[in-house]
Design goal:
single chain; 983 residues; mainly alpha; 45 helices; 62% helix; disordered N terminus
């Protein structure tokens, strides 16, 4: 199919439903017939015209005269009737018996309606109309999309005759109406950003169709592009006046007025859903509730009533406050599970770590929530405000319960709150959320003696408590009536069948006396911890102490095994035994975490009891080794032939082994927060070098956009730590990691400074690979800063350096980057040759991801050389790999470069659609300079399809960006704007 002929559709397959031996037909494309999935001979054009005419009548009889007119019109041959009979006879031989029938001097095809693709499309469209009327917009959207997928190019393609010509026009119009209906639903469910790209192409193909213009204006307005929306109206009014001498229809004029007035109702979709969601997911993230939940009946009822009423309230937010160990999380989880039927679209959960030294960042939590709701990584923006807006759009129209556990303060949770009726939030915190507007506040105190005794009884058994009731009351009193303390003490007694309750009471009294310098609340908990810890077996106690040393929200079984220096199956036995004592929680299968109070206690035990003290350092060193070794394998499996692993600090503890790149990548993203926490924790003597190497090995986290902020923070911390430790090698590598982060974010001046410093330090320490990386980065930065001679010098040095290090992957990278410099200086032939060399080197190594970078560079060079079809193929191949590898920056840039190819090839509609998609993917990543480049190309494409008003708006925004950056591209944009200003 020609690339400019409109949206591509999948190749049509033979329908499964059939009559008799599996006969089925298509008219929404070439006229074809299948039996049991095998194509039947199509016959001559006139024979296909006869088949089409009969199929379009849906079983009704057509007379011979009607069929002759349909096939030949007014110029029928003298032997038309005989020819008609011949074609009918041939069809009858091909089709099943009884399908083609002769009656009343004519013919009919009698098959079940669903065997014809047109009938199936009509049935789907009718169901979609009913779903829309019932408010089921998401269902309607899917049904219309399913109907449109039945088209396979031009309907009745290559079928002659006036009847086919008339029906072809009718079917094309109906398809366009279906597309409009689907786009209308897209906007109603919040997919406006994605719709802009398709609508831009459609308005170019059908410039006088006002409904498409109206939808485009609305999509732009809801995407925050008000000026462009108004420019569409201006372009439309001018076009209609020039072509037809008429004004826009009233609906379009009314929409313009509402946009001018910034109508808030217009900006809000009826039933928003998450843009760019690959699948509508129903998250079920609540931790397991405890089977022996006890007491708190009034709070359970109060919270349950509020959650049950969430559907009719603006937004139900309940905030539970209380001291550590008072049972806030247990109560919230119990209530949340009970309320699940009121939230059929799912439940989200996060531990915000508000009581710890590093509370969870709201933007990080939002990224995890958006992924849980089905949003693609490529659609998740970087900034907090954009993520919060996308999150609210994802929840609007859905009924989801959000449990925000262990919050630090109101500022941390505000971006995480749902925005509309139907959803609700439960918040737990040690701080009272008095500044959280509209929240229902609950102060949770310790249990009453009766509730405390009831909880104790449920764990240890009624018989033991009944026989020693007073001792049991002494135990729960010694625990301060705190649920956490009671649970730990009771779990210890339940595991000691030879103990009496009196024995437990006496032990608790002894611990309280030893800890009497503590405040009352801490005293009860700490005394309980001491008792629980004191009864652990030596291996359990060691595990309890050492695991508490690791930062991060939780820890995987494999990482825990490294900390403990145990085989995974043995580590699992120990960890599960700690879960049984309530000293450790199982966050999910294969993942474990501490209550923050227990973690602090575990660390104090490690400082007090771990002998020799070096064991603490060794445990964290093994954890660092585990992450470094595993991340290095992830890096290697994605980049075969890369020599980075040969230049990393050696490790003594082996990591995980992967055979599938997708599994390796999934591990890296699942462990991102714990891995980066380990990096930060390792910014000290003896470990800072390995921590920096771990950052290098986890480079994908910087490129994806999902974890760039945390990655950048860790790199800055390590650079400063290495400087303080006077370790120039580690400092240089950290500076190079920071330079790469700045490059991804489009901060080229900062990146250049860090790369230069990293280069200097690498030279001082004779760190050969670091010098190569630094030279490569310096060359890239020089390119972006228009320092082309310097860029060629640095990249030539990088090529030679990588070659000396026998690092073929690095050499290929530098060659591809060097091609960009030769391209911009006008040496196109050399640029093509260098990028082809680099790509071929990658291909020989089986390096799919970096090979995509090579194809990207080669595509640019081929574009400049005028070989546009070859350029398109290279860039399309790169795009597919970038998407699969979650490389959001490069996915957006590949879309942008494909748009440039389409523009050069005279396909402005395709170019505009591609540039729009690039803007959507690059939202919040890549920096302003790259956005300015995309806007410039988008403006040129829009100008090419007659939308000069929108083009002006795009160029004006690009000019503002370039002037702010003092970029020379501003002159180019001024030249583009000049003719429009004069007009």
């Amino acid at each position: 199919m020609d690339r400019d002929s409109g949206p591509r559709v999948p190749e049509q397959r033979a329908p499964q439903q059939s009559r008799g031996a599996g006969l089925c037909f298509s008219v929404l494309g070439p006229v074809r017939a299948w039996r049991d999935g095998e194509p039947l001979p199509p016959g001559s054009p006139q024979q296909r015209a006869l088949l089409a005419a009969l199929l379009m009548r849906d079983g009704r009889t057509a007379t011979s005269g009607e069929l002759i007119d349909a096939i030949w019109g007014e110029e029928s041959p003298s032997q038309a009737l005989a020819a008609l009979r011949t074609y009918a006879s041939r069809l009858r031989k091909i089709l099943d018996p009884g399908v083609l029938v002769s009656e009343s001097g004519g013919y009919a095809i009698r098959v079940r309606a669903e065997t014809v693709d047109l009938n199936r499309a009509q049935q789907l469209a009718a169901r979609a109309e009913k779903a829309t009327a019932a408010g089921a917009r998401t269902e309607a959207r899917g049904l219309i999309a399913e109907a449109l997928e039945l088209w396979d190019g031009e309907p009745l393609a290559n079928v002659p005759g006036p009847y086919a010509e008339t029906q072809r026009a009718r079917l094309e119009e109906w398809k366009l109406q279906l597309i409009e209906s689907r786009l209308d639903v897209d906007l109603e469910v919040g997919a406006h950003a994605e719709a802009v790209s398709e609508l831009t192409a459609l308005t170019a193909a059908h410039p006088l169709r006002e409904r498409l213009r109206e939808l485009l204006m609305l999509a732009l307005y809801r995407s925050g592009r008000q000026a462009e929306a108004l420019a569409v109206y201006a372009d439309t009014r001018r076009l209609l006046a020039d072509e037809l001498g008429v004004d826009p229809r009233p609906e379009l004029s009314l929409l313009q007025q509402r946009i001018l007035q910034a109508d808030t109702e217009l900006a809000r979709p009826a039933e928003p859903a998450a843009p760019a969601a690959s699948t509508t997911l129903r998250p079920a993230q609540l931790p397991a509730t405890v089977p022996d939940f006890t007491g708190r009946a009034a709070f359970v009822r109060e919270l349950g009533d509020r959650l049950a009423a969430a559907e009719t309230s603006v937004m139900a937010v309940s905030a539970l406050a209380g001291i550590g160990g008072v049972g806030k999380t247990t109560l919230a989880v119990h209530v949340a599970h009970a309320a699940r039927p009121h939230f059929p679209d799912g439940q989200l959960y996060v531990d915000l770590q508000g009581a710890g030294s590093r509370a969870a960042e709201p933007e990080t939590v939002l990224g995890a929530f958006l992924r849980a709701l089905g949003t693609n990584d490529s659609a998740i923006p970087d900034s907090l405000d954009e993520r919060a807006a996308l999150y609210r759009s994802a929840l609007d129209g859905r009924r989801v319960l959000v449990l925000l556990d262990n919050a630090r303060d109101a500022a941390q949770i505000r971006p995480l709150l749902p925005g509309t009726a139907g959803s609700a939030a439960l918040v737990t915190s040690r701080a009272r959320m008095v500044d959280l507007a509209g929240a229902h506040l609950i102060d949770l105190d310790v249990m009453s003696p009766e509730e405390a005794l009831q909880l104790f009884t449920r764990i240890v058994g009624e018989e033991r408590v009944t026989s020693e009731r007073q001792a049991s009351l002494d135990v729960v009193a010694a625990c301060g009536f705190l649920p956490l303390a009671i649970r730990i003490a009771a779990s210890r007694l339940a595991a000691r069948r030879t103990w009496t309750v009196s024995v437990l009471a006496a032990k608790l009294a002894d611990e309280r006396r030893r800890l009497d310098e503590l405040q009352a609340g801490d005293l009860a908990v700490k005394a309980t911890f001491e008792l629980g810890y004191g009864q652990l077996e030596p291996q359990q106690a060691r595990a309890f102490r050492l695991l508490g040393l690791a930062d991060g929200p939780d820890i995987s079984l494999a990482a825990a095994a490294a900390v403990l220096d145990l085989e995974p199956h043995r580590a699992e036995d120990v960890l599960e035994s700690l879960v049984d004592t309530s000293l450790l929680e199982s966050a999910a299968p294969g993942r474990y975490r501490y209550h923050d109070l227990v973690r602090l206690y575990a660390r104090s035990c490690a400082e007090r009891d771990e002998q020799p003290p070096v064991e603490r350092e060794l445990a964290l060193s093994r954890l660092l080794d585990f992450y470094l070794a595993t991340a290095a394998r992830v890096y290697a499996i994605e980049r075969p032939g890369d020599r980075l692993a040969d230049h990393l600090e050696p490790t003594t503890y082996e990591g995980l082994v992967f055979t599938d790149p997708h599994d390796a990548r999934d591990w890296l993203y699942a462990e991102a927060m714990s891995l980066l926490a380990c990096v930060r924790q390792s910014a000290g003597p003896g470990t800072v070098r390995r921590a920096v190497d771990l950052l290098w090995s986890a480079l994908d986290l910087a490129e994806s956009g999902a974890n760039s902020k945390e990655y950048a923070s860790a790199a800055g911390l390590l650079r400063d730590a290495a400087r303080a430790e006077q370790d120039p090698r580690a400092e240089g590598r950290a500076a190079i990691a920071l330079a790469y982060v700045h490059h991804v974010a489009g901060r080229f001046d900062q990146g250049s400074r860090e790369a230069e410093e990293g280069d200097r330090l690498a030279g001082d320490t004779q760190d050969a690979l670091s010098r190569c990386w630094a030279a490569n980065l310096r060359g890239i930065m020089a390119f972006y800063q228009n320092h082309f001679d310097e860029g060629i010098e640095q990249l030539s040095r990088a090529v030679a350096g990588f070659r000396a290090c026998e690092d073929a992957a690095g050499e290929a990278s530098a060659l591809c980057n060097l091609s960009r410099l030769h391209l911009v200086t006008g040496d196109v032939a050399t640029a093509v040759d260098l990028s082809r060399q680099g790509t071929e080197m990658y291909d020989r190594m089986g390096h799919a991801l970096k090979g995509a970078n090579g194809r990207y560079a080669l595509g640019l060079a081929l574009t400049q050389s005028g070989r546009l079809d070859d350029a398109f193929d290279q860039l399309q191949g790169a795009l597919e790999v970038f998407r699969d590898s979650r490389q959001r920056l490069w996915e957006g840039m590949a879309l942008f470069r494909i748009a440039e190819v389409d523009l050069a090839a005279g396909r402005p509609a395709q170019a505009a659609a591609g540039a729009e998609m690039a803007l959507t993917v690059l939202r919040g990543i890549g920096g302003d300079w790259r956005r300015g480049n995309v806007l410039t190309v988008l403006g040129r494409a829009l100008s090419g399809i007659g939308q000069s008003g929108r083009a002006r708006v795009c160029w004006q925004e690009a000019l503002t960006i370039y002037e702010g950056l003092e970029s020379p591209e501003a002159d180019q944009v001024r030249k583009l704007l000049a003719p429009l200003a004069a007009a």
